[in-house]
Specification:
345 residues, binds heme C, alpha+beta, seven-stranded antiparallel sheet, single chain, two-stranded antiparallel sheet, 11 strands
Length: 345
C-alpha cells in the first residue's frame, strides 16, 4: 500500500528502525513509561500514532455501520458486514486512527490474513471500497471479501502500525498496538532499571533530539517515506515528478530550500510535537516559518512579497493523493498555479 518508496530506493532503507536506537534491551510496553513520564504518556496515548492499530471491536466508527451491505460490481457479489464470527473473513484489526480512514484486516478461513474490501472514511463518514480495491477484479470468493496479504506484506502492515513486533509474532499486546514509545525510543527495560538509580550516567534510551534534520527525516521516514541521499539524483527526480510522493513527507521535505539551506537541516520536530497530532499544534508550523522568514534572523531567509500569514496554505498546499484523503506537500516552495482561494489550510 505504501510500498512505492521501497521499490525505488536502496534496500537498506526498508522499515527496520533498529539502527537508530542501538541499546540492547527488552520491550516493556508503553504502560511502563506512564508513571515517570505521565504527561507525555497521556498525550501520546490519545494521539493518532497510538491509535493507528486497534482491535476492530473498539472502533465505534466502524461498529456503528454494522450491519451493512453493498453490491460490488467488480465481483458481482453482495458484501455484508455482520456482527460475530462467521468464518469467511473474520475482521479483527482496525488499521488507521480514523483521522483519514480505517481499514479492517482479518483472517480468511484458510488462516491467511486479508485486507477488507470495505473501509471507513472520515471524509464521507461512511463505508466505501478500500483504496485500490476496485483496481483488481476478484477471482475467487475469498478475494471478493478482501485482498489476501502475503506473509511479507502482513509483517510490513503490522511493522509500521505497531511497536515491538517480530516476523514470527506480528500481533502485539494491547499496550503496544499502534506507534508507541518504544517504537521511536527503542526497547526500554534497561532504561527503567537505570533510572531507578539516581544520577546514572547512561540513560540507556534513545533521545531523537540528538539527530540532525536528515537523520530525523530518516527516522520518521522509516514509515513516512525514506528520504533520498542528496547524491541520488535519480531518486530525487522521481520524488519531484511523481505526484503520489506528496504522501511521503520525509521524501518531499528534503527537497526544500528551507531544509537544504539551513544548518543541520529542518527537523520534523520544528513543526510537529512527536507525541501529539497536528490538530493539537495548529499554530506551530506558521510560527516556524515566521521565525526564519523575518528580517534579521540567523537563517537569513527572504520575506514573502505576497502575504504575512497562512504561509502553509500557499507554500505547502494540500493535495488529494487518494480518494477521500488530502496530504500536505512538504516540499516547501513557491507552487505555481495555486491560488490562495484554492489552497486548503
Ligand atoms: C523510573 C522512572 C522512569 C521510567 C519508568 C521511564 N523513564 Fe524515561 N526517564 C526517566 C528520567 C528520570 C529521565 C531523565 C530526566 C528527563 O530527561 O526527564 C528519563 C529520560 C528519558 C528520555 C530522554 C533521554 C535523554 O537522553 O534525554 C527518554 C527518551 C525516555 N526517558 C523515554 C522513556 C520510555 C520510552 C520509557 C518507557 C519504556 C521510560 N522513559 C520509562 C525516568 C523514567
Ligand atoms: C512506526 C511507523 C511510524 C514512525 C516511525 C513515525 N510515524 Fe508518524 N505516523 C505513522 C502512522 C501509521 C500514522 C497514521 C496514524 C493514523 O492512523 O491516523 C502517522 C501519522 C503521523 C502524523 C499525523 C498525525 C495526525 O495529526 O493525525 C504526523 C504529524 C506524524 N505521523 C509525524 C511523525 C514524525 C514527526 C515522526 C518521527 C519523529 C513519525 N511520525 C514517525 C507511523 C509512523
Ligand atoms: C512503510 C510503513 C507502512 C506500511 C508497510 C503500512 N502502512 Fe499504513 N500507514 C503508514 C503511515 C505513515 C500512515 C499515515 C500517513 C499516510 O496515510 O500515508 C498510514 C496510514 C494508514 C491508514 C489510515 C488511512 C490513510 O490512508 O491515511 C490505514 C487504513 C492503513 N495505513 C492501513 C495499512 C494496511 C492495511 C497496511 C498493510 C497492507 C499498511 N497500512 C501498511 C505506514 C505504513
Ligand atoms: C513518533 C515517534 C515517537 C513516539 C511514538 C514517542 N516519542 Fe518520545 N520523542 C520523540 C522525539 C522525536 C523526541 C525529541 C523531541 C525533540 O527533539 O524535542 C522525543 C522526546 C522524548 C522525551 C524527552 C523529553 C523531551 O521533551 O524531549 C521523552 C521523556 C519521551 N520522548 C518519552 C516518550 C514516551 C514515554 C512515549 C510513549 C508514551 C514516547 N516518547 C513516544 C519521538 C517519539
Ligand atoms: C529553519 C529555517 C526555516 C524555516 C523553519 C522555514 N524556512 Fe523557508 N527557507 C529557509 C531558507 C534558509 C531558505 C532559502 C533562502 C530564501 O530563499 O529565503 C528558504 C526558502 C523558502 C522559500 C523559497 C523557496 C524557493 O524554492 O525559492 C519559500 C517559499 C519558503 N522558504 C517558505 C517557507 C514556509 C511557508 C515555511 C513554513 C511552512 C518555511 N519556509 C519555513 C529557511 C526556513
Ligand atoms: C496567498 C498565497 C501566499 C501566502 C499566504 C504566502 N505566500 Fe509566500 N509567496 C507566494 C507567492 C505567489 C510567491 C512568489 C512571488 C513572486 O515570485 O513574485 C511567494 C514567495 C515567497 C518567498 C520567496 C521570496 C523571494 O524573494 O524569493 C518566501 C520565502 C515566502 N513566500 C514565504 C512565505 C511565508 C513565510 C509566508 C507566511 C508568513 C508566506 N510566504 C505566505 C504566495 C504566498
Ligand atoms: C515547516 C513545517 C513542517 C515541517 C518541518 C514538517 N511538517 Fe509535517 N506538516 C506541516 C503542516 C503545515 C501540516 C498540515 C497541518 C494541518 O493540517 O493543520 C503537516 C502535516 C503532516 C502530516 C499529516 C498528514 C498530511 O499530509 O497532512 C504528517 C504525517 C507530517 N506532517 C509528517 C511530517 C514529517 C515526517 C516531517 C519530517 C520529515 C514533517 N512533517 C516536517 C508542517 C511541517
Amino acid at each position: 500500500m505504501i510500498a512505492l518508496a521501497a521499490a525505488t530506493l536502496p534496500a537498506q532503507t526498508l522499515w527496520t528502525p533498529q539502527h537508530f536506537w542501538k541499546q540492547d534491551s527488552a520491550y516493556v510496553g508503553a504502560g511502563a513509561c506512564s508513571g515517570c513520564h505521565t504527561e507525555i504518556y497521556q498525550k501520546q496515548t490519545a494521539s493518532n500514532h497510538a491509535r493507528s492499530l486497534r482491535p476492530l471491536l473498539e472502533v465505534g466508527e466502524f461498529t456503528a455501520h454494522v450491519p451493512f451491505d453493498l453490491f460490488d460490481r467488480g465481483s458481482g457479489a453482495r458484501l455484508t458486514l455482520v456482527r460475530g464470527t462467521d468464518q469467511r473473513l473474520d475482521l479483527e484489526w482496525a488499521f488507521g486512527s480514523g483521522a483519514k480512514g480505517i481499514t479492517p484486516v482479518g483472517r480468511l478461513q484458510s488462516g491467511m490474513y486479508a485486507e477488507s474490501r470495505l473501509s471507513w472514511y472520515a471524509a464521507t463518514g461512511g463505508v466505501d471500497f478500500t483504496t485500490g480495491a476496485t483496481k483488481f477484479t476478484p477471482q475467487t470468493n475469498a478475494e471478493s471479501l478482501g485482498r489476501p496479504l502475503k506473509k511479507d506484506e502482513i509483517v510490513e502492515c503490522f511493522g509500521c502500525h505497531t511497536t515491538g513486533t517480530s516476523r514470527d509474532n506480528v500481533e502485539p499486546p494491547r499496550d503496544n498496538m499502534g506507534v508507541r514509545c518504544e517504537r521511536c525510543h527503542g526497547p526500554g527495560a534497561e532504561h527503567i532499571r537505570a533510572m531507578q538509580n539516581p544520577g546514572a550516567p547512561d540513560k540507556k534510551i534513545f533521545q531523537p533530539r540528538r539527530l540532525d534534520g536528515f537523520a530525523q527525516a530518516q527516522m520518521c521516514g522509516v514509515c513516512h517515506g525514506m528520504p533520498p541521499e542528496d547524491t541520488n539524483f535519480q531518486a530525487i527526480r522521481f520524488i519531484q515528478e511523481a505526484p503520489n510522493t506528496v504522501r511521503f513527507p520525509s521524501q518531499r521535505l528534503v527537497l526544500s530550500r528551507c531544509f537544504n539551506e539551513t544548518e543541520d537541516g529542518l527537523r520534523c520536530t520544528v513543526c510537529h510535537d512527536p507525541h501529539t497530532d497536528v490538530a493539537m499544534n495548529r499554530g506551530a508550523p506558521e510560527k516556524a516559518c515566521i521565525a526564519c522568514h523575518t528580517a534579521g534572523t540567523r537563517a537569513r531567509a527572504k520575506i514573502c512579497p505576497v502575504a504575512k500569514e497562512n504561509c502553509a496554505s500557499c507554500h505547502m498546499p494540500k493535495q488529494q493523493v487518494m480518494a477521500h484523503s488530502l496530504f500536505t506537500d512538504h516540499w516547501i516552495r513557491v507552487v505555481r498555479g495555486v491560488a490562495a482561494s484554492h489552497a486548503v489550510q
